[in-house]
């Protein structure tokens, strides 16, 4: 059976910028294996599948897949799927709130769009961030992304595990030069002892290319089939 889908660029106003997303408009009748296979075929950082909501007061039930696994929640798929749904419901101009059922819980998304302009969305997280444990040592974390121990840490920031629906290990790079050199070393990555179920690593440092940037970050998720996510 043919399935209608949309592709979007999220976190940008430029075509082919930001974070790419595929949205399958009707996931009914697809098994989990089917969805995973389709997501692997798209080979984007995430693909979502829209299903009827369990509660008719909500806009949709949404399932989110990377090329290799299903996620309980993800930011840019939530934003992009809400924008697609709002456009289907309201056309080219709107201001609305949608409630999406995701594995992590109910996610409320405010979506607005002026005629002929890009859409804007913001959501309320279904769960608040929680600091976890089981993160690797600074030396092991550094090696996992091709850096040295002296490349890690600044201003009291240390390697830590945090989740707001998806678990990440956050690695503070000492400066932008070190962050620019980061790249997964898969032998060291496997040996690092990352927490089970971790989606990926978020490496970050202070400052950025523009004068008003507070932080710069890079996300690596090779276990999800995403060596580097362009904008997450």
General description of the model:
With 232 residues, the protein is of the alpha+beta class. The protein is built from 5 helices and 14 strands. The chain has helices at 32-42, 75-90, 138-144, 176-181, 186-191, and strands at residues 5-10, 19-24, 46-51, 60-65, 70-71, 94-102, 105-113, 120-124, 130-131, 160-163, 167-172, 200-206, 215-221, 226-229. Strands 1, 2, 3, 4, 5, 6, 7 and 8 form an 8-stranded mixed sheet that branches. A hairpin with a 6-residue loop joins strand 7 (105-113) and strand 8 (120-124). The longest helix has 16 residues, at 75-90. 36% of the residues are buried. The model has no long low-confidence stretch (mean pLDDT 96).
């Amino acid at each position: 059976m043919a399935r209608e889908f949309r592709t979007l660029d999220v976190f940008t106003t430029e075509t082919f910028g930001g974070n790419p997303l595929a949205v399958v408009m009707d996931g009914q009748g697809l098994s989990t294996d089917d969805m995973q296979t389709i997501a692997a075929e798209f080979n984007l950082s995430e693909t979502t599948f829209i299903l009827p909501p369990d509660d008719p007061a909500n806009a949709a039930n949404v399932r989110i897949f990377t090329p290799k696994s299903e996620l309980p929640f993800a930011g840019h798929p939530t934003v992009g799927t809400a924008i697609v749904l709002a456009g289907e419901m309201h056309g080219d101009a709107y201001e609305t709130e949608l409630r999406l059922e995701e594995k992590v819980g109910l996610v409320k998304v405010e979506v607005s769009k002026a005629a002929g302009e890009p859409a804007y969305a913001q959501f309320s997280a279904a769960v608040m961030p929680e600091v976890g444990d089981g993160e690797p040592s600074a030396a092991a974390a550094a090696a996992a992304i091709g850096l040295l121990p002296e490349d890690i840490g600044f201003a009291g920031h240390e390697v830590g595990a945090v989740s707001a629906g998806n678990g990440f290990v956050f690695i503070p790079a000492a400066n932008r030069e070190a962050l620019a050199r980061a790249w997964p070393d898969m032998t060291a990555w496997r040996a690092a002892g990352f927490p089970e179920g971790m989606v990926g690593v978020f490496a970050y440092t202070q400052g950025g290319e523009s004068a008003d940037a507070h932080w710069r970050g890079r996300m690596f998720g090779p276990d999800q089939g995403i060596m580097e996510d362009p904008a997450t």
